[in-house]
């Protein structure tokens, strides 16, 4: 049933994407703010208390509803619940409109518009970026967004669903990613900023939680791209990026499509709106750490954007086929 739930969620999300401002996102934001406001008391263990509540309460709630539906209404209703959970946690349309708009602007030769769209998407200063750097940053942010919105969710959902935990994996992964990102952004707020202990707890937990999904995503890109080059770049150039897990994905992407990634950083521009700040989103450390050089590969060009789209979709198809085969083997066995 996991394969069926994932397939339905992806199809529904393509037809009717979830709006940026919706009750689910607003509720998650309110819950995250409440936990940090009430349990972030400025001591090391408070950081873990706040993180545990913020992440595990929604996860356990999703699991409880799953088993309640199985025990009362039956498995079909539990599958519908899984589809609903995946619909709000999984999907390309949660970020792909940014990618599409920038790509279209570059295809039309409107670089100022492309810079403006990139700056609006990631809340960065992109005013002086040359064309190749616009493309590079769009590729990097889009690949990380695809991982966090699709492949990472797929990995955790599939693993936990296989042991009877229903959609808990999808909620656990997305909540872990969100609170780590939100509390870092909230650290710069003028009122009630996040303490360093809360940020450290969330970032350390996120590093562990995303370790396996990041490597699954990188492996998928290698299989459907240039395998030897992707693996070689993964081994030799992942350390060039500030974040270890994101570096693995970006290095594999660089080798898979033969494009130069990494290098210069962008200056983050603070967002005044809490929801925009929380969803600025798929930042992976552009403003952190020194420039550590670029991966080998061709200079980024708009054509590489189409190559990356193909890479991502081929990887989705590959993992869906694999899940279908595993489901069939389980049914026949």
Automatic annotation (TrEMBL):
Task: Recite the UniProt keywords alphabetically.
Answer: Cell membrane, Cobalamin biosynthesis, Membrane, Transmembrane, Transmembrane helix
Give the residue spans that cross the bilayer.
Answer: 45-63, 68-90, 153-173, 311-332
- Signal sequence range: none
Question: Pathway it belongs to?
Answer: Cofactor biosynthesis; adenosylcobalamin biosynthesis
- Write out the annotated subcellular location: Cell membrane
NCBIfam families to which the protein is assigned, alphabetical? PRK07630.1
What does UniProt list as this organism's lineage?
Bacteria, Pseudomonadati, Pseudomonadota, Betaproteobacteria, Burkholderiales
**The species this protein was found in:** Variovorax ureilyticus
Q: Where is this region: Disordered?
A: 276-302
Family to which the UniProt record says this protein belongs:
Belongs to the CobD/CbiB family.
Predominant location: membrane
Q: What is this protein called?
A: Cobalamin biosynthesis protein CobD
Membrane topology, from the record: Multi-pass membrane protein
Described function: Converts cobyric acid to cobinamide by the addition of aminopropanol on the F carboxylic group.
Can you tell which superkingdom this protein's organism belongs to?
A: Bacteria
């Amino acid at each position: 049933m996991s394969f069926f739930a994932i397939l339905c969620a992806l199809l529904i999300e393509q037809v009717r994407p979830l709006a940026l401002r919706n009750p689910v996102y607003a509720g998650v934001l309110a819950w995250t703010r409440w936990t940090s406001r009430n349990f972030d008391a400025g001591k090391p263990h408070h950081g873990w208390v706040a993180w545990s509540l913020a992440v595990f309460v929604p996860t356990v709630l999703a699991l409880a509803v799953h088993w309640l539906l199985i025990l009362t209404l039956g498995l079909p209703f539990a599958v519908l619940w899984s589809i609903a959970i995946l619909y709000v946690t999984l999907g390309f349309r949660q970020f792909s409109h940014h990618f599409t708009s920038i790509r279209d602007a570059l295809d039309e030769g409107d670089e100022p518009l492309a810079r403006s769209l990139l700056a609006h998407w990631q809340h960065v200063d992109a005013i002086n970026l040359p064309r190749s750097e616009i493309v590079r940053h769009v590729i990097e942010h889009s690949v990380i967004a695809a991982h966090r919105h699709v492949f990472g969710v797929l990995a955790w959902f599939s693993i936990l669903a296989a042991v009877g935990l229903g959609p808990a994996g999808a909620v656990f992964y997305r909540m872990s990613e969100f609170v780590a990102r939100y509390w870092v952004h909230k650290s710069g707020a003028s009122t009630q900023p996040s303490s360093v202990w809360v940020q450290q707890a969330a970032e350390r937990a996120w590093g562990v939680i995303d370790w396996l999904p990041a490597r699954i995503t990188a492996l998928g890109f290698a299989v459907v791209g240039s395998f030897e080059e992707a693996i070689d770049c993964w081994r030799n150039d992942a350390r060039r990026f500030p974040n270890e897990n994101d570096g693995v994905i970006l290095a594999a992407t660089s080798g898979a499509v033969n494009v130069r990634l990494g290098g210069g950083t962008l200056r983050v521009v603070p967002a005044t709106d809490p929801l925009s700040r929380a969803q600025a989103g798929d930042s992976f450390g552009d403003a952190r750490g020194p420039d550590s050089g670029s991966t080998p590969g061709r200079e980024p060009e708009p054509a590489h954007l189409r190559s990356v789209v193909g890479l991502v979709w081929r990887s989705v198809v590959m993992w869906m086929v694999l899940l279908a085969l595993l489901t069939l083997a389980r049914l026949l066995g």
